[in-house]
Amino acid sequence: MSLASRDQWPESSFVGQLQETERAALLAAGAPIRFDDNAILLLQGEIAECVYVLTNGLVKVIVAAESGAETTLAIRSRGDLVGEFALLDEKPRTATARAVGEVTALKIGGSAFVQITGESAAMQGAVTRYLLAKMRSTTERRAAERVWDAKERLAQVLYDLGRLHAQPGPDGSVRVPITQSELGDLAGVAVSTTERVLKDLRKQGAVTTRYREITIRDMAYLDSLRFP
């Protein structure tokens, strides 16, 4: 089955939401590329010259302060676009994108991407909806930080990561290659609190943890904890 088939992509991803004609045009414009673990796809502050369509693996989006401290803002996975925002607003990139494990992608030049989106009203609409969904997600997460407690927020982030960005193993468990610090960043929770909540979740049998990895053992339990 070709990559242009909708069945090959997560339904919630950018590529998965495209119509067949637009999806085929987008994928045809890309050149396959591979990144090793921890490799940088895009660098904060650089001028945008391309976008990536992720075909396999996870990418974390990070912003660095002047002090050098890094905060993980988001996780991107198969079917997602990476780098489109700076290309469209013609300003330097506001974050760095780094591979989590091996990542494969299609690299699309900036002019080609702009041409594809400019020639199709359907593609323009898809890109707009994708950008708005990212903005909505950020707004909802910030609002949750003021309303929901740390355990609810961490359960929500873990549930979303397991549902959207990872593949279940033979036993139904879901491996998420993320550190406890990165999980805390995504949920807006301090590292010490994240460690405490994960300890409780381990006692409940909901998760297990190891270096740079959290394995979800009970998605239903996380679902019961997360905010409505």
TrEMBL record:
Single Gene Ontology MF annotation: DNA-binding transcription factor activity
Top-level taxonomic group: Bacteria
Any Pfam family hit: HTH_Crp_2
Sections of the chain in a coiled coil: none
Alphabetic keyword roster: DNA-binding, Transcription, Transcription regulation
Any Gene Ontology CC annotation: cytosol
Domain HTH crp-type positions: 148-220
Record CDD domains: CAP_ED
Domain Cyclic nucleotide-binding: 14-134
InterPro entries, A to Z: cNMP-bd_CS, cNMP-bd_dom, cNMP-bd_dom_sf, Env_Response_Regulators, HTH_CRP, RmlC-like_jellyroll, WH-like_DNA-bd_sf, WH_DNA-bd_sf
Name the record gives this protein: Crp/Fnr family transcriptional regulator
